[in-house]
Specification:
Elements: E1 4-9, E2 13-19, E3 29-35, E4 40-48, E5 58-67, E6 71-78, E7 81-86, E8 91-95, E9 106-111, E10 116-117, E11 120-121, E12 124-130, E13 133-138, E14 143-147, E15 153-157, E16 165-172, E17 175-180, E18 184-189, E19 199-202, E20 210-215, E21 222-227, E22 232-236, E23 245-247, E24 254-259, E25 266-271, E26 276-280, E27 308-311, E28 320-326, E29 329-334, E30 338-343
Antiparallel strand pairs: 1-30, 2-3, 3-4, 4-5, 6-7, 7-8, 8-9, 10-11, 12-13, 13-14, 14-15, 16-17, 17-18, 18-19, 20-21, 21-22, 22-23, 24-25, 25-26, 26-27, 28-29, 29-30
């Protein structure tokens, strides 16, 4: 089946986009977060067809929540709540009504200026979530653990890094990994009483910012990071001194990577170069299996076969900042002020 790509101009540069879990809505709804506007916002949308005969669907805004600064990240803490970070250093926990999607998002908690240079504000560059907890990072080099159930701050590592942190990922409930502007990766054990990392290593030989990090959905010891050069690095944290594989990928920085929620062998990536790619990750794994019946090893650089990569849409002349996948439908948002819906994606 041929991919069906539909683009719609929405008059906002879209920095983050997220499908709302299908079991909680009758129609396909999603969030967006904008950047570079006088007043940015988090919006709730759905798709509508002008008439039943047409298969073309257009996004329609259901509600809007204005924010100060640019939206830098949106992550779910549960099915109806999202954590939102912004460039003025704030983190917000917002809730959407299951039954009234047109009702504006409800603010549950806000952590004001949780990232700062004293009196001067700085960006909360990213966050990740795990079972109601929120790990936020910023230009101030700090790592904060926020409690989304009580609204307080559980832990602060004030000088987690000497330069701006750009990416963060939970891979266990009490362990996170961060990446900074120079490609230094650090693992933090949140149970430890000191503010020193449990491990540290480099993204690659060059000092390249780690722009995004994800962990493998079925093998949590496998970590993937995108860099500002467009490459993808893969680590096995059981031997974390250097990447297992380093893939020259996009022509410019990787903006987001996401495993398909139904198929862990499918990886999606977007880029500053205006590309949206689908990777077949099976070609990176050895056929040997461990006692838990999971693939136990990833191919080292010298054994790596050529990757199977498909372009999901024609390259844009502006960055594709974000993507979200739900079964056979993919959303992406870009700096050309458009939202793209890709249907009939085979996974």
């Amino acid at each position: 089946m041929v991919l069906d790509v539909q683009g719609t101009f929405v008059s906002q540069k879209i920095n983050k986009i997220r499908w709302i879990p299908e079991e909680y809505v009758e129609t396909k709804c999603f969030f967006t977060g904008s950047w570079d506007d006088e007043v940015n916002s988090v919006k709730v949308w759905n798709f509508e067809s002008p008439n039943e005969e047409e298969e073309v669907e257009y996004p329609r805004v259901l509600s809007e929540y204005p924010v100060e600064g640019d939206v830098t990240e949106i992550k779910f803490t549960d099915k109806t709540k999202i954590a939102v970070s912004t460039s003025n250093g704030d983190v917000r926990l917002l809730e959407i009504s299951v039954y009234e999607k047109s009702t504006p998002l409800k603010e549950l908690f806000v952590w004001k200026k949780v990232h700062n240079f004293g009196e001067e504000q700085c960006s909360c560059t990213s966050l990740d979530t795990m079972e109601g907890d929120i790990a936020s990072i910023g230009e101030d080099g700090s790592l904060n653990i926020l409690n989304g159930r009580r609204g307080d701050i559980s832990r602060v590592v004030a000088q987690a890094d000497s330069c701006s942190l750009h990416s963060v990922c939970y891979f266990k409930h009490n362990e996170v990994i961060t990446g900074n502007l120079r490609g230094h990766m650090k693992i933090w054990d949140l149970r430890s009483t000191n503010d020193k990392p449990a491990a540290a290593f480099l993204l690659a030989g060059d000092e390249l910012a780690a722009t995004c990090i994800v962990n493998h959905p079925t093998q949590p010891h496998i970590i993937l990071a995108g860099s500002e050069s467009g490459s993808l690095a893969v680590w096995d944290l059981r031997q974390n001194s250097f990447p297992t594989s380093l893939l020259n990928a996009h022509a410019a920085g990787v903006t987001e990577i996401q495993f398909h929620p139904e198929n862990p062998h499918k990886l999606l990536s977007s880029s500053v170069s205006g590309e949206l790619w689908d990777w077949n990750m099976e070609s990176m794994t050895k056929s040997t299996k461990g006692p838990d019946n999971q693939i136990s090893n990833w191919l080292p650089l010298e054994d790596k076969n050529s990757m199977m990569v498909n372009s999901l849409m024609p390259s844009l002349h502006k960055p594709v900042n974000t993507l979200s996948c739900d079964r056979g439908r993919i959303l992406c948002g870009a700096d050309n002020e458009a939202i793209y819906l890709i249907k009939n994606f085979k996974y």
